[in-house]
Amino acid sequence: MPFRGPTDLATDWASNHDGSLEALRRVQGNLTVDLIMVRRDAFDTCSLDETAAQIKRRNAKQFSYFPVADAEEQILGLYNAERWFTVVPPDTRVADDFEGLSEDMLIGADASIVDFVVQADSHPTNLVVSGRQIAGLVSLSDIQQLPARAAIFALITSLEMAMSLAISGRYPNCGDWMALLSEERRIGLLEEIEKAQQRDIFLSEIAFTQIHDKACIVGKSGLLDRSRTSVEKSFKKIRALRDNVAHANNYAATPAEARSVCGVVRDVYKMKSELLKVIEQT
Predict the structure, then answer these.
(1) Measured between alpha carbons, how far is 70 from 47 in angstroms, rounded to an integer?
(2) 74 plus 162 within the same structural domain
């Protein structure tokens, strides 16, 4: 069975349900890996005859991985140079110590950036395929680029949309889901709704909730197959990522932070998938 990424798995559902989710899916589909990759003519390679010591000496920019090229400039795989950042490297030849081409290290140039992000912590460098050739290279650090920011923000926005639909489907009477909010927040929400109605800009009650309101409702309602504590913990990380992405903060400045982002993005997608199933059943 061919691999189906986050954008693929939502396609059938979105095309038959909420139009705004479908529009957002199309946005994500247009934010592709080729927008953040290093082009083939711009990335550095290493040869089979080089040694680990030689690579470390010339790796001033501290690239984590080098594509391995033969004498005809054909890409054979990837060499892990990150191992030697803080230790003395051996004189082992690249030919005896590189990872040969495999499906795990390949991604299509037209794949969604989100599809790259969800696996980038386990496969931090991917060779990008276009047609029958390797067209570029994409790495974990590239999730800081502007197209990646847009893709992550769009995914989180689509989660919030799915939350709204799931809550409205479970509780057709808005008073039922409002009862799950704190009294202070409920009063504030009702005041916002009243002002909107007076200005003739009212859409729906759920449209006036913040993401933390929806998280509270989802956690208390049992819409997700996880504990309330787990839901709250996940949404704390999701809100932090959303705010950092929205305000152009550094959210993946180190490899550890970037790997953490991958985990949060996977959780966003998992929760969204669970909510879409809930909506399907209502």
Answers:
(1) 6
(2) no
